[in-house]
Amino acid sequence: MICSSPMIRFLFLATVAAFFLGGVVVPIRCLQFDFPLFTDESQTELILHNNARIYLNATQVTPDVRGDPITNKSGRAVYKDPFLIRHRGKIASFNTTFELNILPQTHPAGGEGLAFILAADHSVPLDSYGQWLGIVNAATNGTPEARIIAVEFDTRKSYPEDIDSNHVGLDLNSVFSIEQKPMAEFGVNISSGISFFSMIQFDGFNISVFVSMSNKTEDLLKNRVIFQPLNLSILPDEVYVGFSASTSNFTQLNCVKSWQFSGTDIGNHKKKIHLWIWLTVAGIGALLIIGAIVAIIFHICTRDRRMNHPEESYEGLEHQLQDFSIAPQAKKFELKELKKATNNFDPKNSLGKGGFGTVYKGNLMNREVAVKRISKDSRQGKQEFIAEVATIGSLHHKNLVKLIGWCYEKRDLLLVYEFMPNGSLDKLIFNNKINGIQVNPNWETRHNIIVGVAEALDYLHNGCEKTVLHRDVKSSNIMLDSKFVAKLGDFGLARTMRRTEQTHHSTKEIAGTPGYMAPEIFLTSRATAETDVYAYGVLVLEVICGRKPGNPLDLGSYEGSIAHWVWEFHKEERLVEAVDESIEGQFVKEEIEYLLILGLSCCHPNPLARPSMRTVLAVLKGEANPPILPNERPSFVWPPMPPSFKEDTSDSSLKDTHLVPFTELSGR
Ligand SMILES: *[C@@H]1O[C@H](CO)[C@@H](O)[C@H](O)[C@H]1NC(C)=O
Ligand SMILES: *[C@@H]1O[C@H](CO)[C@@H](O)[C@H](O)[C@H]1NC(C)=O
Ligand SMILES: *[C@@H]1O[C@H](CO)[C@@H](O)[C@H](O)[C@H]1NC(C)=O
Ligand SMILES: *[C@@H]1O[C@H](CO)[C@@H](O)[C@H](O)[C@H]1NC(C)=O
Ligand SMILES: *[C@@H]1O[C@H](CO)[C@@H](O)[C@H](O)[C@H]1NC(C)=O
Ligand SMILES: *[C@@H]1O[C@H](CO)[C@@H](O)[C@H](O)[C@H]1NC(C)=O
């Protein structure tokens, strides 16, 4: 075939070589970047230390573990390339603007603060938590070894030198600021949980710090908080720019939501400039020519393939799918069949959006179906698709949504499921409406749903050849058939995991839905059977209490998660009062309390103390008692302590899956 000819290989190598040359001539001294928000891709541009990570489109400088104690932490997030601030007597200048959001987690106030830093070192000093803001520690504070300049956004008066618990300060090698200003007079409350903006300008001599609730430059310019001559001689010639933050006994979520930086280029490449220009021009010219040739040949190639072998365009995908030994039950459809079935993806037939695409109602061979069309701009689309076909395609269970077929044509990815006339569980509980008709799910319906989902998860964890982790159990992923039987769907995030495999590759990304994610996920970034159990526990509480799982990051919502909320009732021994009013009188008090306790034990902050799905199912069937729960909600402690109660050890899944990472089905 023409595509594998030596000619193409030569062109490919030539392109690589040209790119390489191009890379050599690009100057790297000048530092400019803009993160309008932080994504998984931004992670490759940053160096994250200790507890810093990217989550919810922001850089969380100290960890964000949804309402659990995050005491005594420090973290640092800096740009990957250092910035040249001094070169042969010249001093660079820079401007930077960023958006911060600091939400207290302890009462009456959080701590400790966040700082913009210029530092010799990208890593966080040891023991720099608490008052040290991740800037210095007790040993380096005030010494020349610290080699750091920081603009601190201090949210706690931790020592007498701090003027108050809401100030901005300029720190040189020390947390004791050389200049500090209370923020109250500028109308800014740093730790209110509301985002605010700061702009810092350094002109090579004076530093100006501006702070405002508004991101408009003119508003920022009105609030100059600090204006000081600044001598950079305490820093080396090259520094890392970024943020550090810390918590103490008092905690808060410290996040940077956007960040722009522009620094001048004072490197000296004048002598090389002629060669430089020459190489650039030559490089670009070569690239253009090669690019054009490659494009033409690629075009001919693909046209050729499509004309001769229409099937081949998704040959690779089919191979991949075969690797996962898909049961033949999932049929391959043609795009035109599905277009016809959905009236050309008529928006009127749309059942909803989510899980990386839009779902349409359709009619295939006189059978109602739901067709999910994975959006083409979803980068993960293909991996989701493969995960979904590979997992549900090979599973059979009455409580799993059935995959009827799939289609991959013209880069269009489609999945065909059985149609669920009663929609998703969240709509049933929270809107109480199905197809516009008012319904109120009674206790029996809710109980059956709770049992159905448990059976599905038990099957995934223990019932099939490989353990399958769903990773995104939530009410909007539970579908209801005509008899309100619950069917777990949306396997876009699912992963299979070989039971015995003990390899330790972990993925950096955090997947799941806030409110349903177990606290340890934010530290380990790793899905386990226990994290699925946690999400199931949230779901149980949600269904019984008719209350949303809650997301502590949403301002205006109640404090913490639904588990916190229900635990308060448990503590005061009035659990039954947490039950949704609309099902009052339909249940036996002891039975519903059992289920709430079961739900809470699934939401135990300690993963080792959570029951397995096998045990959950035994409790639901009345074959076992629910685990004994402490009255006071235990704190989240990492690493986890051994469980406070004994689980039946005959069930090996908990032991086996604990800390065993899933085998990577995809790179997501
Ligand atoms: C946090 O650090 C402080 C001071 O170093 C210490 O007193 C406190 O016990 C620590 N808290 C935790 C939960 O480790
Ligand atoms: C910083 O902003 C000032 C004022 O807008 C501008 O004069 C200066 O050139 C900027 N410096 C850099 C490095 O972008
Ligand atoms: C800032 O906001 C927090 C959270 O709303 C509040 O507890 C604190 O009292 C406020 N601080 C000031 C100085 O207004
Ligand atoms: C720095 O600020 C001082 C006033 O504090 C001013 O006299 C000086 O001109 C400023 N220098 C520069 C380079 O803007
Ligand atoms: C900064 O400090 C160093 C050493 O203390 C001194 O040599 C230098 O002149 C200072 N630079 C300015 C611009 O004041
Ligand atoms: C932190 O709390 C512990 C007890 O939980 C206490 O002993 C310690 O003094 C506190 N430390 C600070 C710095 O507040």
From TrEMBL:
<keyword id="KW-0067">ATP-binding</keyword>
<dbReference type="Pfam" id="PF00069">
    <property type="entry name" value="Pkinase"/>
</dbReference>
<feature type="domain" description="Protein kinase">
    <location>
        <begin position="345"/>
        <end position="628"/>
    </location>
</feature>
<keyword id="KW-0812">Transmembrane</keyword>
<dbReference type="InterPro" id="IPR013320">
    <property type="entry name" value="ConA-like_dom_sf"/>
</dbReference>
<dbReference type="Pfam" id="PF00139">
    <property type="entry name" value="Lectin_legB"/>
</dbReference>
<feature type="transmembrane region" description="Helical">
    <location>
        <begin position="275"/>
        <end position="298"/>
    </location>
</feature>
<comment type="similarity">
    <text>Belongs to the leguminous lectin family.</text>
</comment>
<keyword id="KW-0430">Lectin</keyword>
<keyword id="KW-0675">Receptor</keyword>
<feature type="compositionally biased region" description="Basic and acidic residues">
    <location>
        <begin position="645"/>
        <end position="658"/>
    </location>
</feature>
<dbReference type="GO" id="GO:0030246">
    <property type="term" value="F:carbohydrate binding"/>
</dbReference>
<comment type="similarity">
    <text>In the N-terminal section; belongs to the leguminous lectin family.</text>
</comment>
<dbReference type="InterPro" id="IPR000719">
    <property type="entry name" value="Prot_kinase_dom"/>
</dbReference>
<dbReference type="InterPro" id="IPR008271">
    <property type="entry name" value="Ser/Thr_kinase_AS"/>
</dbReference>
<keyword id="KW-0547">Nucleotide-binding</keyword>
<protein>
    <submittedName>
        <fullName>L-type lectin-domain containing receptor kinase S.5</fullName>
    </submittedName>
</protein>
<dbReference type="InterPro" id="IPR011009">
    <property type="entry name" value="Kinase-like_dom_sf"/>
</dbReference>
<keyword id="KW-0732">Signal</keyword>
<keyword id="KW-1133">Transmembrane helix</keyword>
<dbReference type="InterPro" id="IPR001220">
    <property type="entry name" value="Legume_lectin_dom"/>
</dbReference>
<dbReference type="InterPro" id="IPR017441">
    <property type="entry name" value="Protein_kinase_ATP_BS"/>
</dbReference>
<dbReference type="GO" id="GO:0005524">
    <property type="term" value="F:ATP binding"/>
</dbReference>
<dbReference type="GO" id="GO:0016020">
    <property type="term" value="C:membrane"/>
</dbReference>
<feature type="binding site">
    <location>
        <position position="372"/>
    </location>
    <ligand>
        <name>ATP</name>
    </ligand>
</feature>
<keyword id="KW-0418">Kinase</keyword>
<keyword id="KW-0472">Membrane</keyword>
<keyword id="KW-0808">Transferase</keyword>
<dbReference type="GO" id="GO:0004672">
    <property type="term" value="F:protein kinase activity"/>
</dbReference>
<feature type="region of interest" description="Disordered">
    <location>
        <begin position="631"/>
        <end position="668"/>
    </location>
</feature>
<dbReference type="InterPro" id="IPR050528">
    <property type="entry name" value="L-type_Lectin-RKs"/>
</dbReference>
